[in-house]
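--- STAGE predict ---
source: upstream dedup step, 1 unique chain passed
mode: sequence only
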Amino acid sequence: MEEGYQLAKLKCGINFAPALGLPPVALLSCPGSGNTWLRHLIELMTGIYTGSVYQDKVLYQGGFLGEFDEWNSGRVVAVKTHTRSKIHLQRFSSVILLIRNPYGAIASEVNRRLGGHTFQMQWTKELAESEEFSTTVVQVMNYWERIIHNVFENYMGPVLVIHYEDIKQQPEEMLKRIVNFLNMNVDQERLFCIKQELSGNFKRELTVADRKVQFEFVKGQNQNITERIMMVNKLLLDRGYPQVVPYDL
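--- STAGE serialize ---
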């Protein structure tokens, strides 16, 4: 049994593609949307490293070896970016737009800014009343709304919309969609890799109690989040894409 497991695990290796072998594909999201986790899953599913425009040393040291590759090297299967400008987006041949319910994205970004990539902050009354918390809520909500609008207003190439919550519920199905969008063949054996290493090194695990506290704190900032989600949903539906998934309490 152990020998079979080790043999299967060998098939989960990740490598670079040949130089200039792949078109530049943007893995675009608002900060806090689970971009790093999706990179981990795409790497497992394709066997090819992902890249980034940020060159984050912590992520590189954590195993994302494509982090310091040039975005257009052709050696990585997708490139992490949060940049929404028209000029930036037009550099890419296609875009995978990762959307997370903004309550979850805001909470995740608060944790990252105040605690780092993996540390789970203690959500206290003092945190909720801090200027840094209020500023983060406003900034992320504005960015979340604008980045979705910008893709459909400024980018004319192929776009695949993937919802973070759908990945949590149906990881294999969502990854198959991504692989097909990348014009690659689905390797059924690599589904084993997903099952064995679903979480990766940088995904926080929250309890139901954590999510409820974070939801109430974010909601208390009065940013009209429900109304803004409805506006984005209309934009998505008008273009044939699935709506934002409700926040899971």
